[in-house]
Specification:
By secondary structure, this protein is of the alpha+beta class. It is built from 26 helices and 18 strands. It has three domains: about 375 residues, no CATH class; about 110 residues, STAS domain (Transcription Regulator spoIIAA), CATH 3.30.750.24; about 180 residues, no CATH class. It is globular.
Amino acid sequence: MPSELHNNGFSSLKKYWKDDLLSGFMVSLIALPLCLGIAVASGVPPMSGLIAAIVGGLFMSRVTGSFVTISGPAAGLIVVNLAAVESLGQGDLLAGYKYALAAFLVAGVIQMILGFLKVGKFGDFFPSAAVHGMLAAIGVIIIVKQLFVALDYAPESGHGHGILGSIVQIPDAFINMNPEIAFIALISIFILVVHPYITFKPIKMIPAPMWVIICSIPFSHIFDLFHEHDYKLIGQVYHLGPKNLVHLPDKVVEGIVMPDFGMTFTGVFWVAVLTISLVGSLESLLSAQAVDTLDPFHRKSNLNRDVSAMGAGSALSGLLGGLPMISEIVRSSANIGNGGKTQWANFFHGGFLLLFLLLGKPIIEQIPLAALAAMLIHVGFRLASPSEFKHVYQIGKEQLLIFLTTLITVLATDLIIGVLAGILMQVLIHLYYGAPLKFLFKSRFDYASNEDQDVIYLQHSAIFSNYISLKSEIERRREQGRLVIDFTHVNLIDHTFRTHLQELIEEWNEEGKQLILANEEHLIPVSDHPLATQVKKDTLPLMDEKLTNHQQHLKKIASKNEWKFLPAKTISFDHFAGFSFGTNSKIVHAQNIVSGKYEGVRLIYSEIIYDQTPDTASADSQLSALLIKPSADIPIFMLEREGFFEKLTDLAYRADIDFDAYPVFSDKFVLKGPNEEAIRSFFHPGIIRKVEQNPHFHIESNGEAIILYRFDKSEDDDSISELIRFGKMLALMV
């Protein structure tokens, strides 16, 4: 990997400036409307959002500890920003804005100090279900708040606590909505929903948020939003005017507002400071970690430096009148998708936003607030979509309980109390599952070492709250190259712990090292999710194995052949590496695995769940495949039906190997591979005749194993039985 990819200095600028310049421009098109909308939703002037993004780009890109993240205001901070403005201003939004700037500045300084104190490791502490519950609650709050803007309805106070009081007014908002403003919002949401499914390149090249701006500005003219006026529709009078549009100061310098520290010695000020610093730090850590998983070059952020950098940027932004910032996931993923290579893409993104602010004021002030509200409603829905609830439920019912506890508590109180409630619920569940109270926050383990490998023998429980101490022990032994985590004496592994370990396993694999989990057989998962919480079998005596008819069929096949059957999902699918099937697909998990030996040859039947287009929200696909792992050497090849499989994957080889003595075989199939002589030797007459008699199967070798699956991808029991029978015949001949 080029060294320039691991620094953000001038050497990387020299090599990748074209990629980063183009990506920075494309990201700025997404950032412009979102920054404006986030600012308005936060109860501050629109320019505050642009200030934060400009500072995030021009300043943060030079000091951050990440590589492809985009810094700026985020929807996830809207709730804490707005709470600070409203609580500090006590009804006076302008005063609240100035007091909030002081809170942003102090919170940024605290966040910077937290980074220096190396709090990055505490990003692993929070239960994933509680974090997702917090984000879902933020999504609900954004939707509710912005729905009133999209309908041009002012909610009344005195209807109950916080967001719950607003929710009860939603029916009134729809009844009394301004039809023209609501129409703009509806068109905007339609564009955001439809855009991902459009394949026409000229439309696809322009980001959806920019299309919202392009399409909504004409309605500002059609509905004459530039002047105060009333209009009558179906006997009701509606009011329109400049209040429905974005407003920027006449001169840029007038938008730079200094913070007011007049509330510094009040309790409400420090509640705002602590909330902003904690939520900002947590979101910065989670965002940087999430973006690292998307980085095609597998670079890892310096999380402590990133937290400090975000704190410094937030402090500077607050000093200039801007919002606090984090590494924003949506814009960062867009940066990666547009080919951004280094932090110079972030720098260019900030530079373009500065140009838009200096030169684009006449256009920006034509943007309807309803269009910005629609974009934030769309963001909020993604945070709190039904699929998020479904995903958490699939991991386990206990995860859904933690998720809902956090969500409901956040809506009823605030973010910090909600997250604490989620953590408490997780702890109570662990105690119910038998986790010892004295080892809740510290791992108990023994250690052994020999020439081949090191082994950590965990004791009692492996849960989110004691993972950090174990991770420190693992990191100390990373240089050893091979480490085994033994779970023989563990009675509980929770979902968050398993997720963190899986991430470490992938990191070690990328470095050519081995982190191995061993002796989990005495634990059973609480759901069929591959990373579900696992508990000791006698802990949940009522958890009986319930198999579907299809699974019962597979269990019979396994029993008949004295093979093993594993119905649970697993993310251990390394044996599928090197096959063309995985080239353009992302394997999610494997399930219903039947494995064993037949005449000395190992066979593995798996049902693979995969995404054909990992960069989109496409539905999962399924493939029933049989793997043959012979002990003898085998050539690399691919055998497919003539003219069919090309539609599913790119061909790795060009030459079709024909057999003159077998014209039927040569006409029906395309056989390709790099070593023609070895392939001809492998495809002896016995194999060719069996393939001619069973023309339904794709056959492929990666040099170590052979994979079989039906061309029609049938999944009924008879087709699967036929697949296994053919695999057994082939195993006898290789």
